[in-house]
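Sample A.
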Amino acid sequence: MNEIIRNTQSSLAQTSLDPQDWSEFRTLAHRMLDEAIDGIANVRARPVWQPIPDEVRAAIKSDVPREASDLADVYREFAEHVAPYATGNVHPGFMGWVHGGGTAVGMLAEMLAAGLNANLGGRDHMPIEVERQIVDWMRRLFAFPESASGIFVTGTSMANLMAVLVARTSALGMPARQYGIGNDGALLTAYTSQAAHGCVSRAMDIAGLGTDALRKIGVDADHRIDVAALRMQIAVDREVGFKPFLVVASAGTVDIGAIDDLRAVAELCREEGIWFHVDGAFGALAMFSPELAPLLGGIELADSIALDFHKWGQVPYDAGFLLVRDGEQHRQAFAQPAAYLSREARGLAAGTVWPCDLGPDLSRGFRALKTWFTLKTYGTDRLGRVIARSCALAKYLETRVLAEPRLELLAPVNLNIVCFRYRTGDAVNREIVADIQESGIAAPSGTTLNGRFAIRAAIVNHRTSETDIDALVAAVLEFGERRSGGVIDVEAPPLVAQ
């Protein structure tokens, strides 16, 4: 018997992926955690972003690693070649895209989730109960009924696609899942504004309905969907035999953060018997702020809402979410019986509706844990203040732009996004954006509004302050003067002391 045990232990030592020396592993793990915390705590000491040198790109390339490497060597490669050249959205000077800054709390929760290695596709275990708790919180936040359902996904692009699929099944019935969309499906039409995110068109494509079936409605002076034009287009489509089935309204458009008149769109959809979906990628979480929540009036009437906790919620990537008013319609769009997914009255396979019944994924990570930690640790009131603060900083940037004759505001500031430019041509403004990014001072992005290139500052990071706004403005003026003055040799000014 002892020989059998020794042979078994020897076999495990050769095949198990656990450390041979747990003490040594623990020491290195503590060092990794300490340095990760240091990276966040001292984030202002480094550039927001920096270009990747050719030698670093080359260093990461290699053949398939067939032989083992020492963990310390792998970590060293990460520390030297990966960490310094990340996107930069942890930094308070990152304002280019609507990326949350994450938190140290969320980082720890992600580590804990990895330790559990839970698959949240189904079965009866507490990680799924944590996700269900957040679904319940979101039901309450948006005043949805108890029959509503929700699910974590990668992001709002996926959530919007899933909403299209739920609306499609609602319009065509369950047979469409078996036989395809058929002739009736070919007549389905959906509607959104010209300012909506491109993922809505992509969702129509992936859903098999085609991008031509999506009508992009014009916007008003505030970049909100023109509800009168929407009503007219629906009437025209019905007249010629099309079947309107979905309207996607925006709660925070991608370019300038505009919020459609959600109540008016909801009333129109109810009159017309059309599914009303809200793309609230970042704007929906303005519900956390009593100051901003009234801007979302009507969102509680939606049939479905897509949002990202990894934006204004500051949860580490990724943590998207879909909330559906009618949980049974949600389930009908995705649930599929299979012997290996049979539900039992007791044991690990117990339970009724599993998350795999509500989306395309059977293998699902524990995204809910970092969201649960974030909401529990900070509370929605504090997160709401962070959200309101980012909007106040946008207004501060707006005042800086309006007070500077060399700068021009290109769109109204609705929430936390400011679109402006140096008073010169598009080509120079494009160079200014790249110059600032490469300088490491800040990371704005660019977009085009009414045919004109804009410098776009999306203020999302909870670490951002007036000092960071001032640094961005100073950099725009500095590089704008150099570029418009014909200077092409860009030397980055030193990082602003902060």
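Sample B.
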Amino acid sequence: MNVLCGYNVNIDSVYRVSGIEISELLKNFESTEILGKIEDPPGKILSESDFVAGLVYCMKNGCGAEWLVLEATVFEFLKNRYFEKSLVRMGGNAGIMANALSQLGASRVIPNVAVPSKIQLSLFSGRSIYFPGTVTERKGNSETGSGKTDSEEIDSEENMYAVSSSQDPIHFVFDFSKGDTFSLYGTEIIVPRENRFIATCDHLNLRLYVNPAFEKYAIEHACEIDGALISGFHLLLENYSDGSSYKTIIERILCQLEGWKVENDKLRIHLELGHFASKEIASSVFLEFVSILDSIGMNEDELATLRHFHGVPGEEILLMEAEAVGNAVYRLASRYGLTRIVIHTREFVLTAFKPNLELNSKQASEGSADFRVLEKLGDFKIPSLQKMAERKLKALKFGVSCAGVYAASGRLEGRTFVEEGASKLQESTIGRKQLELFLKTFNGQAFGQGAYAFNGEYILCILPTLLSKYPITTVGLGDTITAGIFLRELELDVQA
């Protein structure tokens, strides 16, 4: 399978922060300033105190967040304090998904790279990554990228980009662990759940900058591409210094996607959402792209952000209740004509999809030949629908296995590695409980470790996740599960 990956590729500087460090760090700031910002989070970083408040807020609540660093002095503070002590790895939804796809067996993966520095290119997988417009194509088996990256090729690549930058796009990722404790100005805080806080310093990706070579390759080779994974829209700002806004960028990307579809109407496009600082931008992205997408993915936080579109209380979704998530995805899909939505939570993954149903003459005589026939399928007796649901569950299982193994090991080294690693992981007990509730609520049918149910014109599928007791990383799990599901669905649909 050949897959395009746009648009955000960056460098992650990953640092595991301890409770002791936080207690010491807090001593450098006035309590009233930090506590005020924890009570009313600014959502962006213009000062060192903004950063500290954001990190403490996430640790205190066990939640994840990504805030943009908009002040150069804060970038220098973070780089000087943490970069040399960090694990440097591939970052950005598109970069992580590109690596996952290549390691899981995709034939060719074409990423959009805004800043092609030596460090950035070295972080790509050694398998089947192709950089348009260059002679550099990653081959081999090295996880850190053993393809050609000599200085001559790097210089050539940099000259091909209309916009270059001497500053690598760095996202400072702060992982923290469940059970860590720290003193918040005299109050002992126990971290309720492992998660991460990300401080993002990334100017080109804030504009979803598109490498001209990537853009040229995508339109010229669209007929050869099976799928496209697009992401990074959560980085958009309401306004930019040149007077433009996020709306201009959305229009530009939408025009590009429409061009791909004109060249290849079978091309599948999946949009992966992210943690939006602005509800308005999140809403605009959703509404503008729904008409051209084949699928859309998000976690429970992002689904709750869109509650004004589906009407399900955000509190129930954030508690990862299968009934609330199932109702929300069904309403979103049916109200806005989406073909498929995938929700990945810590405890389970749930999808709603509209099947491409082709009825035979006997079935057609028994009811309407359009999708309204699905309203009568509570008895699960149409084999073609059962097979569709089972294929989706197989794809979900593959994605769940990939994410679980990646969390446990920090690596993906082919399908055998994933299968062996997944066999050693435990199924989420909360996810299993929610599956049982799903069966009762939606009159579902069990299949393997998962279940499916019919709801109006859609089929809902749910599968518990696989959890590691001591995860090496919590970053990139949503992107990994998305890449795994997307690739396996493409393969299974071709086989069908």
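B remarks: Confidence is low (pLDDT under 50) at residues 135-164, 358-377. The chain has two domains: 2-219, 340-495.
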